[in-house]
Amino acid sequence: MLNEWKQPEIEHLVPTKWNWIVSYPENLKLGRHVDIGCFTYIQAQAGIIIEDDVQIGSHCSIYSVSTINEMKGRVVLKKGCRIGSHVIIMPGVVIGEGAVVGARAYIDKDVPAHSKLIP
C-alpha cells in the first residue's frame, strides 16, 4: 500500500480528502509515505517540514506561529517519528528521528531522536 502513496493535493484552508487542513501550504514541505490522521490542523506560516515515513494521529494541531503568545518558528518532524492523536506541537519544535510522542501531549520543547514522550 505504501508503494502506491501519492503526494496529496493541499490548498490553503481547504480540507484534504482525508479531512486535515493546512494554512499556508506553500510553507509546508511534506516527505514521502507520510500518514496524517483526520481532523489534524497544520499552521505552516513560518514553515513546517515533515520528513519521510512520519505518522501523525488524528485531531493534532501543529503550529509554526502562535498568536496567543506571539511565538514563531519552523517546526520539523524528523524521519520516522510518530505522533499520537490529540497532540499539540508549538512553534520552533523539532521532533527527532524515530521519536514517539504519546496521545494528548503538549510539546513546546524539542524531543530527542529515538526517545519516547508519553504524558
TrEMBL record:
A Pfam cross-reference name: Hexapep
Keywords of the record: Transferase
Entries under CDD domains matching the protein: LbH_MAT_like
Record bears the keyword Transferase: yes
Gene3D superfamilies: Hexapeptide repeat proteins
An MF annotation (GO) of this entry: transferase activity
InterPro entries per record: Hexapep, Hexapep_transf_CS, Hexapeptide_acetyltransf, Trimer_LpxA-like_sf
UniProt xrefs under PANTHER family: SIALIC ACID SYNTHASE-RELATED
Protein name: Acetyltransferase
Organism: marine sediment metagenome
